[in-house]
Amino acid sequence: MGGPLMAKTKGGFFVPAEEAPHQATFMQWPVNRKVHPDGVFLEMAQQTIADVANAIAAFEPVIMLADRADHAGARRKLSENVELWDIPTEDLWCSDAGPIFVVNGKGEMSVSQIQFNGWGEKQVNTRDSQIARLVAERLGLQIIPTGLHGEAGGVEQDGHGLLMAHESSWVNENRNPGMSRDQIEAALLEAYGAEQMIWSEGVWDEDITDYHIDSLARFTGPGKVLINLPKSPDLSNPFHLAALATHDRMIEAGLYVDWISEPEKRRGKSFDFMASYANYYVCNGGVIAAQFGDPKADQLAVDALRRHYPDREIITLNVDPLGEMGGGIHCATQQMPSL
Question: What is the rounded CA–CA span in Å between residue 330 and residue 294?
Fold first, then answer.
């Protein structure tokens, strides 16, 4: 693929690359006992979210969203560098429920509204479906409707006009009934201020996200991708087959593709545990990434991140509770770009 595409949309708004400078990172405090009925596990999830927030806060401001009634409990785990806002939450996945910030060359910012609906009403979302709107209102930002239901974790963007996604997370009756892939693509390009999209099939109905792309592959620059692949693919595993197909699709599209192998040994043992090194978060001066207890694989992942982000400090954390829930660090964060 050639040089960067020119990003453009109505008003000139676009989503900058994640590695571009941030004003802040938004996160959500998990509290809902219907989502997390095991109180011990909920406590672990809260501590893990606090660990991620505290790590990011060493590099840039972090705003944790939580109902005021939950602030005291959250504050006990959060560093003083994390600010609490009174916006009620249910779960922790701010990449999906949080606002998608767009900017333009005039120094303006808006929120591109892809409506969260609990991954196709698979999970309670009375509070979480309102988060993007409430953040936009508190910041006094215009909301630009897209007509789409979905999640930012279901699409990757390089900030220079290129998107990639799995069809399973978008061309799905649980999110966008009656819309064709072409219609969804046009709306996503408009939402992100992008000009071109690469699709791969993904996996329907095997996990709550219908296989978000950010659990597999991430843009690290214009036309550059880092992908997390199984070292020894199991051809009976639908996620392994889909991952290999997505890899091949990106090669066919002319992208530069680097890869990290999944850990062969890990602490999390459940079948649907998400052991993805690709689900990292890039903040100002740092990369916050997972380690899974496989020393060799963990180190190779750090080496890969250093190749792609040579001027940033690589911080690795044990975030196994997020993996047990089928997500990771990137799923729990949403960046607010600098103007």
Answer: 20
Mean pLDDT of 265-283: 89
pLDDT at residue 9, rounded to an integer = 57
In the three-class reduction of DSSP (H, G, I as helix; E, B as strand; rest coil), residue 274 is classed as coil
List the chain domain ranges: 11-337
The 3 state secondary structure assigned to 39-66 is: HHHHHHHHHHHHHHHHHHHCCCCEEEEE
Q: Please state the rounded mean pLDDT for residues 98-105.
A: 96
Question: Residue 265 has what pLDDT?
Answer: 87
Residue 105: burial class (beta carbons within 10 Å; 0-12, 13-18, 19+)? exposed
Is residue 1 pLDDT above 60, yes or no? no
- Count of C-beta atoms within a 10 Å radius of residue 302: 18
Q: Are 71 and 84 in contact (CB under 8 A)?
A: yes
Fold topology of 11-337: L-arginine/glycine Amidinotransferase; Chain A (3.75.10)
In 3D, which of 336, 303, 339, 314 has the Cα closest to residue 61?
336
